[in-house]
């Protein structure tokens, strides 16, 4: 494929990116709103356009199991899921990270049952927050397409060796038709060399993977894992920097919009960043000194970069897309409060949970959240969280 | 030989805790788990190898006289050999005795 800009459904662009990345194995089970991604991939494979094994498994548990097997032999591996599918594969999802098996997942974020809902929020990915996957959030079709390649580059880096989840908002992104700039196959090959895995399963070099760990060794394996996730950070930056050099599209763990001189900021993760930017433009025109802070890299959490970005601001209004029931706020706000605890110049944090199960959060709503959030911050009303738009 | 498990530091582990030394499970002497041991009545043994086949630990081997016995360094005392033996020549004896 040559370089071309086209109007395309984001799910189809993901499938095309996976094909351009020349993956060897795709194992997935269809689930709304991820279905179009793997459906189109199965067409690409069936039409002979991609020489890959497409394994139509019996469940998501099996999908992730197949992915672990294929990654273990050093095959470039892709899967995609959502919500209940992620819940069903969660057992093996943790194992993939623990065994340090490189793969990329397009995670079309969707709420968890019950009540049954097919629509978008972040409760699915937050369920597996602590699994040890690299978690990237994207805002639009172009970022999704780009981050499939960046995901493989990070994942397969011998200094990283971790699975990567590219989180995109279900429906809001998966089913959106947008202009996406496809890159030339030659550029992709240059950016993404053939995957060579150290200690891959091979009869000539037998190794044992996923062994039994006694209390005498388990603690050491977990520290090795923790340091592995933390140490992936500079290599994630490098993967994005090199993509930026080749394409002119740059990514950072924390990105900002009109935040440099802002007195306070709204913090978003995922597609909400785009709406927030529009609303901030309007509020700026009215004289509000507000900006946007967007968390692109959720795991490993970019602690230093986040602190550097927000220390000195008066307030942060954090928009979460999931509830931690019985906890102290949404998962993002809880993380950020912890990151800023007892830091000089730390902004006060006001937390909203909004847009659960795809309930629309319009520009007007963002405006309300920002202005009401500022008032809450100024009056010291900063405990817990507010469920935005709740009736009663 | 690799270090004993309780001496390996986290820095020494392979990525993903992959074990690259082949066959090092022999260093793990599972015989200490045992509360009963299998004792073979050589007169009754018909040398059918069922015990060898069924042993989940793979610790049964052919003895000099042609009958089969367990390596007590690894035998966990599970009793599967005794249960499967068609000649009923294996008895599980308590280690307390």
How would you describe what is shown here?
The complex is a heterodimer of chains A (392) and B (97). Chain A has 13 helices and 15 strands. Chain A has 392 residues and is an alpha/beta fold. In chain A, the strands form 3 sheets. Chain A has a 7-stranded mixed β-sheet, sandwiched between helices. In chain A, helix 1 (10-20) runs parallel beside helix 6 (141-156), helix 3 packs parallel to helix 4 (83-98) and helix 6 (141-156) crosses helix 9. Chain B has 97 residues and is α+β, with helices and mostly antiparallel strands. Chain B has a domain at 31-97: 2-Layer Sandwich (Alpha-Beta Plaits), CATH 3.30.70.20. Chain B has helices at 50-54, 80-84; strands at 36-40, 60-62, 68-70, 90-94. Chain B has a two-stranded antiparallel sheet. A two-stranded antiparallel sheet of chain B has the order 2-3. In chain B, a hairpin with a 5-residue loop joins strand 2 (60-62) and strand 3. Chain B is elongated. The A-B interface holds A 98-101, 161, 198-199, 206-209, 211, 213-214, 216-217, 219-221, 223-224, 227-228 and B 5-6, 8-11, 13-20, 22.
What features would you highlight for this structure?
heterodimer; A: about 400 residues; alpha/beta; Rossmann fold; 2 domains; 6-stranded mixed β-sheet; 13 helices; globular; B: about 100 residues; alpha+beta; Alpha-Beta Plaits; two-stranded antiparallel sheet; elongated
SSE layout and pairing:
The complex is a heterodimer of chains A (392) and B (97).
Chain A: E1 4-9, H1 10-20, E2 25-28, H2 35-46, E3 53-56, H3 60-72, E4 77-81, H4 83-98, E5 104-109, H5 123-127, E6 134-137, H6 141-156, E7 164-169, E8 177-182, H7 185-191, H8 215-231, H9 233-247, E9 254-257, E10 264-268, H10 272-285, E11 290-295, E12 297-299, H11 303-310, E13 315-320, H12 331-340, E14 348-353, H13 363-378, E15 386-387
Parallel strand pairs in A: 2-3, 2-4, 4-5, 5-7, 6-7, 10-11, 10-13, 13-14, 14-15
Antiparallel strand pairs in A: 1-8, 6-12, 9-11
Chain B: E1 36-40, H1 50-54, E2 60-62, E3 68-70, H2 80-84, E4 90-94
Antiparallel strand pairs in B: 1-4, 2-3
